[in-house]
Give the backbone structure.
Amino acid sequence: MALPFYVSPEQMMQDKAEYAKKGIAKGRSIVAMEYDGGVLLVADNPSSSLYKISEIYDNIAFSGAGKYSEFENLRKAGIQHADLKGLMYSREDVTARSLANGYSQILGTIFSQELKPFEVELLLAQVGAEPGQNELFRISFDGSIFDERRFTVIGGRAETILQVLRKTSTSHIPSLVEALTQCIKAIEQVTEQTMALEAMEVAVLDRSRSGRKFRRIPQAEVKTLLAVST
Amino acid sequence: MNDPRKFFPLSLSSALCSSFFTYLQTHRPEMTPAYRWAQSPSCFGHSKMCEPASASASHILSHGTTVLAFKYERGVLIAGDRRATEGYQIADHRMEKVFQTDEYSAIAIAGAAGPCLEMAKLFSIELEHYEKVDGVRLSCEGKANRLGHMVKANFPLVLQGLVVIPLFVGYDLKREAGRIFKYDITGGRYEETEFHTVGSGGKEARLTIKEHFRPGMTEDEAIRLALRALSNAAEEDVGTGGPDPVRGIYPTMKFVNDAGVQTVDESRLQATWNELSAERGTRN
């Protein structure tokens, strides 16, 4: 009888992590940043119909980086979970925190039990009633969950973009125009490319809207916003 | 919590469907009204033994009463009275029977109050769910069909006397026109070209509308006609509540047009009602 190969658990986890990280780093980045009226999400996305940012519930937005089929399934499962919870309890009981927990459980289980880990990184944003009450969660491929303040980045060279943002951010909460230019500048600086208007996917969770706060900002509007800033 | 498939109840590997209602039916049947009631017929058990369930249930449960919809120059007006009854008692003076279901559609329901409200709620979640999952809104026709499926799924309840008859209106962005859909208890879907009414006072309201309807009415004319039809229905039908200026209760009215759904202000209804009353002299 042939002796089975022995691979130490450490080695196996490390291999899986490396594999997942590689997949995620191949993609492009998505930045979320709090601004005075809510939360802004900017994605570097050349496709105008395959969205990376989308709405989960009244005040919650979702974004995924990495393998499209994987984060798309997670997105749909999240919408189902949120709608079901809103129906069972009430709309205000659907929170990004509980969703983030659910995602963390799923990704954690898949990472440790399946042969191939999910090559995804997720971002959940929830806009609060007041500027200080927004929530940003980042969930990585192994299910680890990070509760972020002010801004966060997933996908591509996320860590480098984060560093740039940390340097450029000021203590005051930026306006929408300021936040948008900061995000775009940070992405451009790291990728060393200028972002074409067509490659920008921009959406906001706008606190002033009643009911569903999520809104995509169309290209024309992004153009005017950017024109104001210069 | 440890089993992800329990937490996010669909297996992640399977293709997820865009319909929330279908999802409930297959994965959470206990959350759909028909299943729940079908599982527990004993809630009417005592009366079921001595008389048909349909007769007993209609006594026990509150019923929504007159709702109507007709076209006007920019789209559709949809309106409903505010009274809910339980047998010979008035259960509620200020019930809402007309609901906005998404940016370009609204629904009005007549029938047993509980299942009615639940269907309206489920239907609006259904539309929102589709929009979020697929990234686009359903077409007007698609929404009307979806509602037909939900009415059909409600059929077990009908057998127990819990009838839900919706009236659906939407603005069709492709055709650039307002549309009206009516349903029968089996989920049959029929499109109306000009107007329709549902409920115990529906016949009176329909006669009034038939008499005064003309294509291309203005907003003001539409409000007048709807108020007139609902107050006529209230005069002839015990289940329908007319405008009540003393307590400030007026029908719910919504316009569905190219700009979306707008609820008619109470002050506007009050002013129009005062005009109508003055014209009719002491008869109000």
In short: The mean pLDDT of chain A is 93. Helices of chain A lie at 9-26, 68-88, 96-113, 158-168, 176-191, 219-229. The longest strand of chain A covers residues 38-44.
